[in-house]
Amino acid sequence: MMKQILLIGAGRSSTYLIEYLLEQSTKFPFLLKIADYCIGENLKQKANHTNLELFQLKQQDNTQQGILIAQADLVISLVPAVFHYEIALKCLELGKNLVTASYISKQMQDLDSQVKTKGLLFLNEMGLDPGIDHLSTMELLDELKQQNATIISYKSHCGGLTDQSAPTNAWKYKFSWNPTNVVLAGQGDPSKFLQDNTTKYIPYNLLFKRSEPFVNNPIGDFEFYLNRDSCKYQTIYGLQDVQNMQRTTIRPLGFCKAWSVLVDLGLTDNEYFLENTQDLTYGQWINSYLKNSSLNNKRTSIEQTIGQSIDENSWEKIQSLGIFNNINKINLPRATSAQILEKILLETWSLKDNEKDIVIMQHQIKYRLENQLYQINSTMHIVGQDSIHTAMAKTVGLPLGIAALEILQKNINITGVCLPIDPQIYKPVLKKLAEFGIKFEKTITQVDF
């Protein structure tokens, strides 16, 4: 019987994944089933492919999803991260391997012993970041350790951005991945990292105020903020003795300072629902957060509310959002401020057909070798083709697809809830990614102690 791969979720990051799997499906062969709550036109155009079947799921009804999982040999989940656990439980019950591009949650990690007992592999963090960052990092570290190098410092920067050579908007940024994740970025536990042998924390309210420049690199000048808990990867990567451990997110210059104003106002809050959002205008929504909304000068009113001045560059960005519009209604029933902000941003931050996104990743590793100190910079720079075939979709989707086929062909003999840090995973996946132009350029320089 022909093997089956089930893909649950076919959003904006699935383009390359689907095309890759369909191309490979005629070689092995296998049947690709795609299930989502909304089947887009681009996907419907592929519906006549011999090895493809499409299924439109019903909200609040997981019966059909369970049937599809039972029929599959392997499941790829590209749904929002909060729904992975439910799918994982069903895969565990039915004895199916699972691949996702999301961070391993505590719930998912707690399934590890049960997954191992059943001889299954739940491979998570298999996209871009997390994903390619793990693959490329482990390759670099294993090479350095083979040379008996001592790793002193590890920094990894990654960002999904917009092609800076073309006009975009005042923020020089547009969505190439889940807009909700962009709006909510940094919320939850404070960012945690290691700096000069000292553990540091940055709470959400200060995160975007503490951005740093990411300059003098081959791609251009940007900035970054610290991303989640960098320290947990010390153990994962075998870097318990490093002095610096930082993982960051890249943004265009000036982005973070303007975004911090939105954070200070409470516009990114997703914890509570506002009243009467169906009938509120955007201007009324903003006024509900201002200390003195009667002032005609909105800039002054916001500055009084957050207790600090706003520079011209940031003010231009904030004005460009149209949040002071007193004509158009929000037209969202029972919405949070984060949901309202996302709706606004989707109007101006969505890629147009001919616009291109870019993905940048750079690892900076300092190490000691034979009484000399060196730094290796390993850089990946991918440019998208258009608003559908994006660099983000390419770098998220292809690692998922390649790993899924390696598992399907039983080339990976690992069980449990895992990250892609084993040579069985990173070596074949990186080799295949290079065939698609996803590869790193390395420079090594000697530095002073």
How are the SSEs ordered, and which strands pair?
Elements: E1 3-8, H1 15-25, E2 30-36, H2 41-44, E3 52-56, H3 63-71, E4 74-77, H4 84-94, E5 97-100, H5 106-109, H6 112-117, E6 121-123, H7 132-146, E7 150-162, H8 179-183, E8 191-195, E9 198-202, H9 204-207, E10 212-214, E11 222-226, H10 232-237, E12 244-252, H11 255-265, H12 282-287, H13 298-306, H14 312-320, H15 337-348, E13 357-369, E14 372-383, H16 391-408, E15 416-418, H17 423-435, E16 441-447
Parallel strand pairs: 1-2, 1-4, 2-3, 4-5, 5-6, 6-15, 7-12
Antiparallel strand pairs: 7-13, 8-9, 10-11, 11-12, 13-14, 14-16
Helix pairs in contact: 1-16, 7-17, 11-14, 16-17
In words, what does this structure look like?
The protein has 17 helices and 16 strands. With 449 residues, it is of the alpha/beta class. The strands form 3 sheets. The protein has a 7-stranded parallel β-sheet, sandwiched between helices. The protein has a 7-stranded mixed β-sheet with strand order 10-11-12-7-13-14-16, covered by helices on one side. A two-stranded antiparallel sheet has the order 8-9. Strand 4, helix 4 and strand 5 form a beta-alpha-beta unit. The longest helix has 18 residues. The radius of gyration is 23 Å and the shape is globular.
